[in-house]
Design brief:
6 strands; 6-stranded parallel sheet
């Protein structure tokens, strides 16, 4: 393996949550008087922390989202996760191979710690990600596309940024990884390679990942 640490994004890479959460976000924003389609939500918010939603709505409309927005949004998301969320196909097998080969890995997500835990518990991925391998934008204050989260994860895991590789599925995440000085492979199951900017490489099946990183 060419890298000393593999850093995974969570939503859309480990858990198949993006269609669920963006459907809910688009509907909730529309309900609040900010008409948003599913495609709009993917374009504007996929890969970003929830503060990006607040900032974008305020910038575009001059209106703030209501107090309690985050809590209500997360409650709706978690309710759907409990019924429908699944791991991305091939992820458990890929993680098992990383463990067998002794390759360190972690997750660095724009989502909250609670969102990560809920998703991992529902999909059974919690067995692969103990607390010391889970990092959230909550830990650093600025979410993607800022590099802070990836740099924090590398520091906590004791690996220099240039020896890390990131696995991402959003343009914001690719930008963040590049800003952190890390190689990044774009997972194209939902997002076409052309929209993932300057990724080091691309793949559409988790079974392909370890071959790319070798």
């Amino acid at each position: 393996m060419r890298y000393e640490l593999v850093i995974f994004d969570n939503d859309g890479v480990l858990v198949d949550s993006e269609p669920l959460s963006n459907t809910i976000l688009a509907a909730y924003l529309t309900e609040l008087g900010h008409p948003t389609s599913y495609e709009d939500s993917l374009r504007d918010y996929m890969g970003g922390a929830v503060h990006r939603v607040h900032d974008t709505v305020l910038e575009r409309t001059g209106r703030r989202l209501p107090e309690g927005f985050d809590e209500e949004f997360h409650a709706r998301v978690f309710a759907v996760f409990a019924r429908e969320l699944e791991a991305v196909a091939g992820v458990p097998d890929m993680l098992a191979k990383l463990v067998a080969e002794g390759v360190p890995y972690c997750v660095a997500s724009s989502g909250s710690h609670e969102r990560i835990r809920v998703g991992h518990h529902k999909t059974g991925l919690d067995r692969w990600f103990p607390e010391g391998r889970v990092f959230s934008a909550q830990d650093v204050g600025r979410g993607k596309p800022a590099p802070d989260l990836f740099l924090y994860a590398a520091e906590r895991m004791g690996v220099a940024p240039e020896r890390c590789v990131v696995v991402e599925d959003s343009p914001l995440g690719v930008r963040a990884a590049r800003a952190a000085g890390m190689d990044v492979y774009g997972f194209t199951a939902m997002t076409p390679a052309a929209k993932l900017g300057t990724a080091t490489g691309y793949f559409d099946d988790m079974g392909q990942l370890l071959g790319l990183l070798a």
